[in-house]
Specification:
It contains eight helices and four strands. With 178 residues, it is an alpha+beta fold. Helix 2 packs across helix 5. Belongs to the nitroreductase family.
């Protein structure tokens, strides 16, 4: 598993190869097995394939900088967090963390399938909430793309440079407390 974790990347250059429903279901299956507080599983995902009205509706919520490259992705989605617990209707302060766990499972599963997921904070949660007609008990957490790796030369120069740059990670000593 460490191989998939280390090989996971957030690419911006996607091929136009379609993702099948079976592949999407396999990714969602990985997400649904994530750990969560009280086994609440406070996540939902709105996922659309390129060429559909829903893809276009989600796309409109993206920040302009993301629109430049997301258009190459065959799948666009958004993760959502339910803000209250089902068992007592109290605020779930761990919901976003739990959604992150589900997305991490999905990203690692994608890597094992030679797929890539790129999560984005550059979007309008208000536009997503309006488009999906969300009640106030759900927060849009992050938007994401899914696809196969494409050619870097399809990206603007500044993004192509980022795409080929070495990945940097803090050392273990930098992230541990003692």
């Amino acid at each position: 598993m460490i191989k998939e974790i280390k090989n996971r990347r957030s690419i911006r250059a996607f091929s136009d190869k379609n993702i099948t429903d079976d592949q999407l279901n396999e990714l969602l299956d990985a997400a649904r097995w994530a750990a969560s507080c009280f086994n609440e599983q406070p996540w939902k995902f709105a996922i659309a394939s390129k060429g559909s009205d829903h893809y276009d509706g989600l796309f409109e919520a993206l920040a302009e900088g993301n629109k430049k490259w997301v258009k190459t992705s065959p799948v666009l989605g958004v993760s959502l967090a339910k803000k209250t617990f089902d068992h007592n209707d109290k605020p779930n302060k761990h919901a976003w963390h739990d959604v992150g766990m589900a997305m991490a499972n999905m990203a690692i599963q994608a890597t094992s399938m030679d797929l890539y997921i790129h999560q984005m904070a550059g979007f309008s949660p208000e536009k997503i909430a309006a488009y999906l007609n969300l009640d106030e008990n759900y927060d849009p957490v992050a938007m994401f793309t899914i696809g196969y790796k494409g050619e870097v030369d399809q990206l603007p120069d500044d993004l192509a440079k980022q795409e080929t740059a070495d990945r940097k990670r803090k050392t273990i000593d930098e992230i541990k407390f003692w």
